[in-house]
Amino acid sequence: MKLPVSYSDISVKEYQDLSKILKDKMTSDDWIEVLAKVSGLTVSEIETIPLKKLRHYFVLISFLGKTPGVKTKKYLKVGKHWLKKETDAENLSTAQYASIKEFCKDGQAINNLNHIAACSYRVFKLRHKYMESGVQKSKWFSFVYDPAYHKEISTKILEKNINQIYGTVFFCSKVLKFLMENTEDYLKAQEVIKQREQEILDMIREGTFSISGDGMQS
How distant, in Å, are the alpha carbons of 124, 125, 133, 146 from that of 137? Predict the structure, then answer.
C-alpha cells in the first residue's frame, strides 16, 4: 500500500476532502476513514488489516493531524501560467479584496482555498498584440490580476501541492483583518470628526465659540 508521508504528497483537492474528516481530537474510526481516503481502500478492507500493521499505517499518516506549512511560493507555475504572489495587502485591487472576502466568509476558507489562491496571485501577461495604423505591434505586460483567468487557475490549483498554497489562507486572513481594522478605524475617525463639527456648529449658533489669534479656541 502506497501512502503519503508528508503534505508534499497531498494535493489541494485531497486536503479539502480530508479537512471534512480531520478534527482536533481524532478517534480510531476517524483515522480509519482518513486512511481509506489516502489509500484508495474501502473502510471494510482496512478493518481486515492486522492491528500491528494498521498502527504502522496510522503512524505514517499522523502528519495529517497537523496543519500544512504556511510559507507560500512567491512565484508559482499553474498550468500554462506563471503567477506572482501579492505580498502587500495595500496592493490588492478592490476586485481581489471583494473576492477574497466572499470566499472566506461562513467558515468556507478551506473549501474555497483554490479560489482564494487564484485571487491572491497575479498572472504574468507576456505580450499583447494589436494593430495600429495597419501595423501589428506588441505591448509587454508584467504580473496583473485578471478575473478572466480565475476559473482556469482555480481549477488547476486543485492539483498543486497543499504546502505551496495553504499559506494563502493566512495571508488573506491578515489582509482582511488589516483592511477591516483600517476601515473601522477610518469610519470611527470620520464619526468623531462629524461629532466635533456638529459641536462647533452648535457652539457658533449659541455664540459660545470663538477663535483667538493663535488659532486656539478661547
Answer: 19, 15, 10, 22
Beta strands in the chain (DSSP E): 75-78, 81-85, 121-124, 127-132, 135-140, 143-144
Residue % of the chain over a pLDDT of 70: 71
Give the residue from 111, 99, 109 showing the smallest Cα distance to 146. 99
Q: Which residues 6+ apart lie within 8 Å of 90 measured at CB?
A: none
The residues, any chain, with a CB within 8 Å of residue 54's CB and separated by 6 or more, are 35, 46
- Rounded to whole angstroms, what are the CA distances from 45 to 12, 40, 61, 88, 143? 26, 10, 17, 49, 49
Q: Which of 82, 167, 84 is nearest to 122 (CA)?
A: 84
pTM here? Answer: 0.71
Whether residue 199 has pLDDT greater than 50: yes
